[in-house]
What we know:
The chain is mainly beta. It is 7% helix and 31% strand. The relative contact order is 0.03.
Amino acid sequence: MKKRWKGIRTLCLVVCGLMMAGVSVKADNGLGVTKHTKKEIAEYIKETQANIKSEIGYKENKDPDPGTMTMDGAGSLSDSVINSALLKLNQYRYIAGLDAVTANETYSDYAQALAFVKVHGSGLSSDQLGPTLYQNYLEGEKYSNYATGCNGVVPAIETWMKNPDARQQMMKSSMSETGFGFVYQNADYYAAMYTGQGDTTVKNVAWPAQITPIAFFDSGDKWTFATGQEESVGNITVTVTRLRDNKKWTFDKSGGLAVSNNTSGLKGYLVFQPKLDSLPSNEQFQVQITGLVQGNVSYSVEFFNADNYSESTGDAQYDDNGICKYTTLVDGALKHDDTKCPEKNNCNGYMPAVCKSEGNYEIGNAGQLYWFAQQVNEEGKSTYNAVLTKDITVNQNVLNADNTLNSGSYMEWTPIGSISKQYAGTFNGQNHTIRGLYGKKMSGVAAGLFGVTAATACISNVGMEDFYFGVSSETTIANMGAICGANKGTIDTCYSKGCMSVTSQICGGVSGFNSGTISNSYSVSAINGGKKRGGICGNNKNDKNVSNCYFDSDVCSGSVVDSSYGKTTAAFKSGKVAYLLGKEQSVWGQTIGVDDTPVLNGSKVYENGDTYSNGQATTKHHYNASGQCTGCSENIGTIKNNSYKTNYTYGDTIPEPKESNFTIPEGAATPTFTWYDGDQTAISDLNSVASQKRNTMPVDAGIYTLVVETPAHDTETATYDASSIRIKVVIAKATPTDYIKPTGLTAKCGDKLSAVSLKVSNTNEKGSFVWTDSDVELKAGSNEKGQTIQKTAKYIPTDTKNYNEVEGIVLSIQVTHQVVTDSAVAATCEKEGKTKGRRCSACNTVFVKQETIQPLKHHYNANGRCTKCDKNIGTITNNNYTTVYEYCGYAISEPAPKNFILPKGVTSLVFTWYNGDQTGVVDLNTVSAQKIENEPVNAGTYTLVVEAPAHDTTEAKYDASNLRVKVEIKKVNPTGYIKPTELTAKCGDLLSMVSLKVNDENEKGSFVWTDSNVKLEAGSDVNGQTITKKAKYVPADTNNYNEVDGIELSIKVEHEFKLIGGTSHNAQCTSCKTQSLSTACVGGKATCTSPAICSICGKPYGDVDTTINGHEYEPVYNWSENGDSCTVEFICKRAGCSGSVQNHKLTDACAVTSKVIKQATCTQEEITTRTATCSFNNIEYTTSKDFVTKSALGHQEVEDPAVKATCVKEGKTAGKHCSVCKTVTLEQKVVPATGQHSWDGGTITKEPTKTEEGIKTYTCTSCQQTKWETIPKLNGDSDNPGGNTGDGGNTDNPGGNTGDSGNTDNPGGNTGDGGNTDNPGGNTGDSGNTDNPGGNTGDSGNTDNPGGNTGDNGNPSKPGGDTDDGQQPSAPTDNTETVKVGMVTSDDKAAAKYQITNVDKKEVSFVKPVNKKAKKITVPNTVKIDGKTYKVTCVSGKTFSGANKCKTIIIGKNVTSIKANAFSGCKNVKTIIFKTTKLTKKTVAKNAFKGITKKTTIKVPKKKVSSYKKIFKSKGLSSKVKVKA
């Protein structure tokens, strides 16, 4: 099966291959790795590090530059490069306890071929590569780690070691050879390491190793352990314990542990990661792994600083006394310099004590002693145990020879333990001495070497010398003692030789206060002052608690509370005290004549009568069972427990008692050992408790008695009776440590703590847990994912006999919210909506707030129907405009807005008239010929089109709408026509022969007969007859007037006589033959001016007729002023008739009717037609006249407020218009933009440096446009006016390119141009020109120039122009000097912010859009700034951050570069369109496309799809994002 290790190609030290390394587990476990010491590791690194080179070189016999090679070969790394890589790899392997590997040239060819193909693209074919190179590539790809972005092989090895998968390939236990490759091209790097197939088993190798230099492992690296056997994650638990604070991390299948059995063939590979903030030197851990196939594994891990390590002091940051070298003593306290110390704030100034096992430490210097005190006092580690491994000196020569305080500056001591943190552990001095403790600022209840001890504390085998404890104004202690201020535990085999000066305190030579036990100890310390003094104890609660203790009564003289323990200085010097102490505790001794006081581990002292010596007495003693000599009263005591431990914890192995554990009478046989249950030390007869005797060693927790017995015997110097000792042995309950804590605890917000089950699913856990915290209601916090809270519980073991309950166990509970979704409410046209929201139903914490969605607003179409909700408000409606008129001779009423019901918000209407009924015409353009200009006058049918423009209101949007109104003007019946009168006809005439012509010039109409055209008869009367016939009136204006039918007209039909015979007046009608025999004249009609003409003879006869029948009247109408009354005068019109003729003129009153034919408007009067009617001489007369009956209403003026002109926007003057007809009565005039910005106080947007001017940006408070002024450079090195910012410290680049990594080809490079060699003196504000280092942006400080001089000898108090004269600072003037590279401004349309990148080329970078709520954001091709056109060539970093509403982004065709994180935050963008074809791998920054989600589609020019896809995905774009044309 092929094993292939492939990497993911990313940038800059991101791992692309697989790797692993190891830590040595206990060698005695048979794990197969070597554990090296700190010294060995430090020396190995030192020896190898000097030969590790970072340079890349190639062998001369092959192509020297693989970046430019043909396909003929891949080159070969030089021997020095490969040797450096080997040394670095073998450093890791040495630390891990593995054998070193060597280089294989063939393997290097494999690795080099792989790197070569990777850098040129994996798509190369075998034909392109050639057979050898291709085969090497295939082999290299199978069994290699490889990475990109690492600028050498050594950095690649360091990178691989940070990746667990790649790490294990480097840590193969059987690997003996390897090879390396490295190729670069166009700033693209590939490194490879061939690991070979070989044995893929990595057995029992862990990383970090048991001893690991801090330089080789970071706190954020993952930990690994490999077993080489297939493992099941379900069985394994990994526990990591940090020893300094007992902090534990547990990893198993429920979280934090990964187990791989098939990573490139490697099995049993465990990966876990304790969460560490830092890794200080000397940090120690214990790793326990249970559930492995091979069984449980436990190993320790310790970190150290190999760079400064020395065997004598460990990490060389500490001096020989264990004090950090980066501390100073200030007023008795150490001040630590975090800035200089390599451990920074992880070092507290003291060397940590050596941890031998959890809670057990070795102390060998003063720093470790002070560190131990800190752990107890500040970290609360009151149960820590310690042993001294050396004598310790803290301060030198604290006391003078007379026990008085010596002058000098001393390091202050803080006692171990306090009233709140009582020391409860075991402190064994192992017969060592602590010298030079000094304490004058001690506070608290008690002070001494220890402050306050608990009942379980045991302090033994330690001496205190040359110490001084005193009081000052700062002291608050109440009890002082050399060994302990307040003792509740055990003090055994201790002494003190120093001085204590007190005032009102209780003080003792060993302990100030004592409620515990003190034994086998002495004091020769001076005690000055004190409220209560004791040579041994100042305040002892029970004298029985103090045994075999002595003090020097000559030194501690005066009143003491325990004088019975006093011995003279001579007694101490003689050896007597040493003898007495030695009888109980054999470690006491004294060289007589040399030592003035007893010494731990000193020469044994013997009693010879009244004297003491180091030799035995000559007289043979007889010692009874109690050790008392029956002859001389010397008491050597009975059997003494020398080293048999009496206090155990369940689980400890209780050792079989041995003779070596005890001091037994000289020459005695091997003692017998008998065990009893219970404390039998006070029982006089053991036979009485025979039932308690045990046959086996005790195992369970409890109290036992060990009886040690020796038989009676003789020696050359003494006779010994049988003797015994009873030893109380306590096996304390153990505190469980391997219990399995409940994990994965979950709760819902609002649950009670008691509801959270503490059941452990692991069947191996037999104990149980109960909560000890109060039964509170649990809260999930403010984060929607909830929060992890910690509560305390206690563990109750199943075996309560042997195990304690464990209090204070902190358990984590993941409390999640009870999330409910508040459904979204869609907004309607009229009602607000709400967005979808989420909240917790228990605590009501809102995660997604329901935002109010404003009403959508109606969108009414032309028909008045809402396109969204179908609401129909109708279109324009005729309210009161008259649609039917009668012809009146005037234009009908002018339509006005008030005549119609209009859509809301309409402020103007357009009225258009058409001839005819156009209400059914779809497109009025087809009848445009029928359009008329004004209101119609003549009778007919018309169409009024009322149009309202499209408009918006706050409630709705309205499309343009119209109303077509059919208007009809009806013809009217004529009322003032003049009927024909005095119609006459001859008998026999046809009706049609009777003329109907009216002899009145005012009558324009005509009459026609409507009756049949019959022959008229004059009748039988010789005078004829009057007949009536019907006619109709045809008005002259038939368009506007109706014809009038049924008009009855009277016709006088006379006979036409013809004389017959000769008789006068005897005649016959020529038509009807009627005869007239009258002799008188008949016929004819007299008028007012002539008599009648005889119809027979044709001669006038009779008188004129002055009655009304004889006149021919014409009416003359006289109207009142307003037309409400009218009179008429009938005046005869016949010539010759005058006022002297009777009835010539007659007057009558008319009935007047009225009709309004035009309503009054703002500008038009009301017109009313008055019609006057009267009847005269049986004839009806009528006339009409129009009168103004109401004045024009006048305009209803409203104010149009003035709009103030701003710096960039035009304003308007105040105006007026009519609110009724919308006529503008006072026109608003345009006020030009002022051009005068209102600048704020300015913000420094670029701080000045010694090499670059700064920039202060001002923003117009009105239009948000910006202007700038430069800030002079800081005083600095005049030799480097354009200095390099961030170019790697290249001093050859004084005008350097900011951020160009020290490109020496571009000493004056253009900022941001990537080191353009075509622009070696590029313009960055003329950086590099020492005559004009910041460039002139003004005109030598001319204060008349508001653009001002901002950088070159200008007025420093007015860098942006003189504004003291009350004028606003001016806008940027139209000259290039006001524009600086780096300045940020808005474009003239205030659509976006831009940064000036090149003044000469007029190029800018798109910084951010102004409207971040826009759905579409365009980076334009060009933009105008202050009227000048700039090309947009760059997209800045985080440009679209916060544009959460944006769906589409368009990148213009002039963009050549994109900065890092440009598209960060584009989580809702669906489409990004690139029009530019100018992007390259160099011009697109790392992570430029990071943040674009997989739902986004990127569209690019067709010819750029392939290249852009590669570039974008190498710059942070997810492979799931589509890139297409």
